[in-house]
Amino acid sequence: MIYNTLHNRWLRLVAAVAGELICAVGVRLFIVPLNLYSGGLMGVCQLFRTLMQTYLDLDFGTGDIAGILYFALNIPILLFAYKTLGKHLVFKTLVCTLSYSLFYSVVPTPAVPIVDDYLTACLLGGILNGIGCGIALTCGGSGGGLDIVGLCLSKRGSRFTVGKFSLTFNVFLYAACLFLFQPEIAIYSVIYNYFSAMVLDRMHQQNVSVEALIFTRDDQDKLARFIIEKLGRGVTYWNGVGAYTGTDLHVLCVCLSKYEIEELLHTVHTIDPHAFVTVQEGVRVHGNFQRKLD
CA of 104: how far to CAs of 14, 38, 56, 85, 107, in Å? Predict the structure, then answer.
């Protein structure tokens, strides 16, 4: 069952959406009731929501407009990322972002916090958010926001990685929280994000290196161009001969991250349905290998 889920495109998408539900539940049940703030783009949306409620006297009822704002801000980001990341990744990100925004908006926030202790709430919310994000990323999805911006910057040759961009952004976000609210709000928000990041790292490591060998009888140049232009990876290929059939074939070798392997497999089978690919995970790569999601 687990194998089928991880290797079937549609089951992976369903699992990614389920991961976004877990993320939303963790934030709405444990973080929002204590007026804490998520990091990244969602944290900005929560900050805007609070400012509109405080200074514009806007009443959003039992719902949370931060989810709607989050989805709206992701639209220009995904349009910006379309040419850089490709339609398949953008499509999955759009589905995950829409799912998270919907779940965040409809999951009710308890009138009285389930857990009064801030540290315990940060721990529980961080664990759920880390697990949910880990499931989504493992299944090739993404909740959007800063991950997509950072990935685009790294693919365009920027010195910013996803991690560095997110860290820099959150420094300014929590500095604003420290200025606008009580220090405890900013401090516990940072603690929540720390717990979430630790669990996410345990659930999924984006930069686990993968070596793929592609065996095809079709045009190897077309596959090589895709790998170089779309994935930004180098590729080596050589000519071989099938020992049983005696026919000529081409063997392509490429090292990439787990984040990119599904797009590679989909493209290979689109170009040559009869090709087969061997994938070896956990390869140690030394030298000029670009880590895009560290």
Answer: 17, 12, 23, 26, 6
Could you give the CA distance from residue 52 to residue 55 in angstroms, rounded to a whole number? 6
Q: Which residue's entry shows tokens 């495109």?
A: 9
Q: Residue 8 in contact with residue 139, Cβ under 8 Å?
A: no
A 10 A CB-CB count for 190 gives 19
- Which uninterrupted H or E stretch holds 241? strand 236-241
Q: What whole-number distance in Å separates Cα of residue 29 and Cα of residue 114?
A: 7
Nearest to 89, CA basis, from 219, 287, 230, 291: 230
In angstroms, rounded to a whole number, what is the distance separating the alpha carbons of residues 267 and 273?
Answer: 10
Residue 144's closest CA among 203, 51, 79, 64? 79
| Predicted local confidence at residue 123, as pLDDT | 93
pLDDT at 292 over 60: no
Q: Specify the DSSP element, H or E, that contains 254.
A: strand 248-257
Q: Is the pLDDT of residue 267 over 70?
A: yes
- Bridge partners for 1 per DSSP: none
Digit-coded pLDDT (tens) for 11-20: 878 888 998 9
Q: List the one residue out of 221, 263, 258 whose CA is nearest residue 239.
A: 221
Write the pLDDT tens digit of every residue in 77-120.
888 777 777 777 788 888 889 999 899 888 888 888 888 889 99
Sign, CA dihedral 93-18-63-200, equals negative
- The token pair at 179 is 């200025």
* Cβ atoms of residues 212 and 263 within 8 Å: no
